[in-house]
Specification:
Strand content: under 5%
Number of helices: 3
Radius of gyration: 33 Å
Largest sheet: none
Shape: elongated
Helix content: 55-70%
Amino acid sequence: MSTPYSGGQPGGGPGYAPPVAEPATQNYAADYSQPHSGAMGTPMTDEGRPDVEGNSVGALIGEVTKDLSTLMRQELELAKVEMKAEAKKAGQGAGMFGAAGFAGYMVALFLSLALMWALASAIPTGWAGLIVAVLWGIVGAVAFVMGRKKFQQVNPKPERTVDTLSQVPGALKPH
């Protein structure tokens, strides 16, 4: 894994060790056990900072730029892996909700049939079926009205995002 200050002088310096080959699987966690920074083994000072004495500013800026690019690629890859895992969990959860919804539908169907047959013992079967259908019509109408009311409260414009994005140009201007 590429780490900061990877373009430093490869040889010399106290405690220099040759770079270790990358493992087959990537681990994005920082490894602070190495005595050197970078793949080339930039020596470290006693305070734990890279010993950059003798390196040009251009070389150091090049290293920082390369390391930032590597960091951004690794962060992007990590985000993709995390999103894929979360999407898989969300898909499994949605499948379980679908199964629960179907099971609920079957319960409602058979309870409705049971109610219809229970009413059929006192009145004709046709009227019992009509009564159950009217009950379900009332439930559907109430659900429709409540859903329409909730839907009218939805604001498709992301107000907070628009507000914060409108502040960005002002923050970039010199004061």
